[in-house]
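INFO  loader      accepted 1 record
INFO  loader      residues=163
INFO  predictor   begin
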Amino acid sequence: MSEPSISWWQKYGTLAQMAQASVALLGFVAILFQINEIRTSNRATSARQAFLGYTDLAFRNPKFSAPDYGAIKKGSREQQIQYESFVSYFLYACEEAMVAFGDRREWIASCDYDIKPHLPFLCEKDKAEPGYLATYSTATQEWVKTSLKTASVTPPDCKLGKT
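INFO  predictor   done
INFO  writer      dumping tokens
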């Protein structure tokens, strides 16, 4: 007696079982895609909130958003700490925006514009405490260093040059 012939698909299950497995696999891929989209959306929302928070802080503290750094250095210790916190929040907001919107030039241009008055502080801070910038991502560190170089702000005087 000869054995009945078995089609290739019968070795792996019925057609309905293979279709069900294919649909399940497509569903799994769709879930992974949704998770990635949710992550991207959350990152963008977080970046917008951080930058909005920085903008609100700048609005409420014009003495820090357009600083007279010489006066801040001569001011109280409390004012110096407030200014350092302001700049730290600004760098954090820009770091978040650059990660979330790195492909959108307007976010980077906004950060480039806002960093200029803070470059003397960042130059002095980097000279006195090199670990300060290390608390930010490599991309943010490079951005700050490029901004310092572009504006000709260099130690030891750390003065804002003409650009």
